[in-house]
């Protein structure tokens, strides 16, 4: 096992070489994800989340830059990586039981039949039911069973919870967390619903406009940002302002304090969702140094 | 076995909720020295929270000397907390007193206000010998008041 699950350096992916405009789905992405983390990949639609996950899964090659997966080139570690794409690709003509048997045949030496069967059983699925007869949420369950049965070191999930009901969502998130606790599996999951990931993830990768806007441990990111409210004529320098708004005589802002704050400012810790939304609403806000720092540390 | 209930909207950090609920169980005698806490895996399977959050809470409890981690076996209670288990005389007296308060027409808020006032009078300052940073649900940053 390596201690770095993902490491991107100046990673970029362009679709449609001939079109001159807006072909870059990802550009100039650099970040490090240590092994054993549960990482949320968050960003608006079309931000490049799915592209990043597909690159990590080794399903496509980057146009520029490098993405190392479990210490080697993406694609070489495929046996140790599980990937569930957004559309949950499965063979519609197979039954649930046949799909799991296929998982066993395709992953010799790694397959954990009991774990996979337990996940399917949690959904009361008939093993003889054909995949094509299943609902979207049931298909998600089978796809997750297939990915977890492989006992991957790195699990890449693209919008895994989108079509699950709240009960199944909670149960399967519990299964994922238990996998992480038991085997130290690194889990990377994308979503645009931040609140859904807040309690389960300890690492954040915020992508906007094809670039990494924020990357790091969630606790650290929340600690280094502060919500403040004060009078409208306040000068916020020397702090880094992510977002500020003036309503009447009041100024509210999300800042990265550069010095202790005056006692008469009212302050609070932002929630993860507030933090993410502030960055997404303000594409010009600078990316904090924490992401850069962790990148340097990993190089050293 | 202790079961944690995580309230996502309480504003209290998740690991602090686990610390508080464990201490509550220790105070009420639901957990006794020698008892085993649920494993991180059991907690996250039931609550879907991040495993590191559970480990952080257990480390905090360990730092306070309340539990100890035994390698490969799990986390065990080292000592109880307070002297007010559910069947103590103090508990009975409080029950009697609450019944009296109810009889004299006080509602829940009245009782809570009265109780808090008396608590504040007798426990005005935190004993400096007992450091319990985790018992303050809000980090010090919050002391300046929440912006609304």
Write the layout of secondary structure elements.
The complex is a heterodimer of chains A (300) and B (148).
Chain A: E1 4-14, E2 24-34, E3 38-42, H1 49-57, E4 64-69, E5 72-73, E6 81-84, H2 96-106, H3 113-121, H4 136-149, E7 154-158, H5 166-183, E8 186-191, E9 203-208, E10 211-217, H6 218-223, E11 226-231, E12 240-247, E13 250-256, E14 266-268, H7 272-281, H8 289-299
Parallel strand pairs in A: 3-8, 3-9, 6-7, 7-8
Antiparallel strand pairs in A: 1-2, 1-4, 4-5, 9-10, 11-13, 11-14, 12-13
Helix pairs in contact in A: 2-3, 2-4, 3-4
Chain B: H1 14-27, H2 40-47, H3 51-63, E1 67-70, E2 74-77, H4 89-103, H5 108-122
Antiparallel strand pairs in B: 1-2
Helix pairs in contact in B: 1-3, 2-3
The CATH first-level class of the domain at 14-77 in chain B comes to Mainly Alpha
Uncertain residue segments of chain B: 127-146
Strand order of the largest sheet of chain B: 1-2
Total E-strand runs of chain A: 14
Please report which band the strand proportion of chain B falls in: under 5%, 5-15%, 15-25%, 25-35%, 35-45% or over 45%: 5-15%
Identify the CATH architecture of the domain at 14-77 in chain B.
Answer: Orthogonal Bundle
Order of SSEs of chain A: EEEHEEEHHHEHEEEHEEEEHH
Number of strands of chain B: 2
Mean pLDDT of chain A: 89
Gap from first CA to last CA of chain A = 19 Å
Number of alpha- plus pi-helical segments of chain B: 5
Number of domains of chain A: 2
Work out the largest interface and the residue count of each chain.
A-B, 28 and 25 residues
Trace the largest sheet of chain A across and list its strands.
Answer: 6-7-8-3-9-10
Over the alpha carbons, how many angstroms does the gyration radius of chain B reach?
18 Å
Query: CATH homologous superfamily of the domain at 14-77 in chain B, by name?
Result: Winged helix-like DNA-binding domain superfamily/Winged helix DNA-binding domain
Question: Which class do the helix and strand fractions of chain A yield?
Answer: alpha/beta
Rg of chain A (C-alpha, Å): 21 Å
CATH superfamily of the largest domain in chain A: P-loop containing nucleotide triphosphate hydrolases
Which class of the largest domain in chain A in CATH terms?
Alpha Beta
CATH topology value of the domain at 14-77 in chain B: Arc Repressor Mutant, subunit A
